[in-house]
């Protein structure tokens, strides 16, 4: 009888891969502020995507388009009647031009047909995690960056 060939069994390889995957998830959670930090980042990226869509819609249609965010209701409204909710556990702060606000407490960023905007910032916070979605007023460029939690 011959001895088995050297190497690893499929089961051993799968167990090692599962362990590596589990450690990677835990390491990512620790680096990004936990699972709440990962969720807040995902929501910030979604808001950024909708801001970019609103800008693209303004350029494509040749008409100004508005992105609205209501921090009290935890909702946003983008071009084309796109709507979304932000979990209640997150804090929302909007900084932008007061002249574009449709009503008190609701933030608005207006995008023009040339791609420019009125600019602004949406900040999402939870515990020790914060993410900023910044819109440049001159170019309308949208960027997502880690923010600082202010007490």
Structure description:
With 151 residues, the protein is α+β, with helices and mostly antiparallel strands. It is 33% helix and 28% strand. The protein has helices at residues 10-31, 34-61; strands at residues 65-70, 75-77, 83-85, 91-96, 107-111, 120-126, 129-135, 142-146. The strands form two sheets. The chain has a four-stranded antiparallel beta sheet. Strands 4-6-7-8 form a four-stranded antiparallel beta sheet, covered by helices on one side. β1 (65-70) and β2 form a beta hairpin. The protein is elongated. The mean pLDDT is 91.
Helices and strands in order:
Blueprint: H1 10-31, H2 34-61, E1 65-70, E2 75-77, E3 83-85, E4 91-96, E5 107-111, E6 120-126, E7 129-135, E8 142-146
Helix pairs in contact: 1-2
List the main descriptive attributes of the protein structure presented here.
151 residues; alpha+beta; 8 strands; 28% strand; elongated
């Amino acid at each position: 009888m011959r001895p088995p060939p050297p190497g690893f069994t499929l089961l051993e390889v799968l167990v090692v891969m599962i362990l590596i995957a589990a450690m990677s998830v835990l390491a990512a959670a620790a680096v990004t502020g936990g699972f709440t930090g990962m969720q807040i980042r995902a929501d910030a990226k979604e808001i950024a995507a909708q801001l970019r869509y609103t800008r693209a819609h303004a350029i494509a249609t040749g008409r100004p388009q508005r992105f609205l965010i209501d921090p009290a209701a935890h909702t946003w409204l983008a071009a084309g009647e796109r709507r979304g909710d932000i979990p209640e556990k997150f804090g929302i702060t909007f900084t932008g031009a007061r002249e574009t606000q449709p009503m008190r407490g609701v933030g608005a960023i207006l995008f023009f047909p040339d791609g420019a905007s009125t600019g602004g910032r949406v900040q999402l916070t939870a515990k020790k995690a914060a993410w900023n979605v910044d819109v440049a007023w001159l170019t309308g460029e949208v960027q997502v960056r880690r923010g600082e939690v202010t007490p």
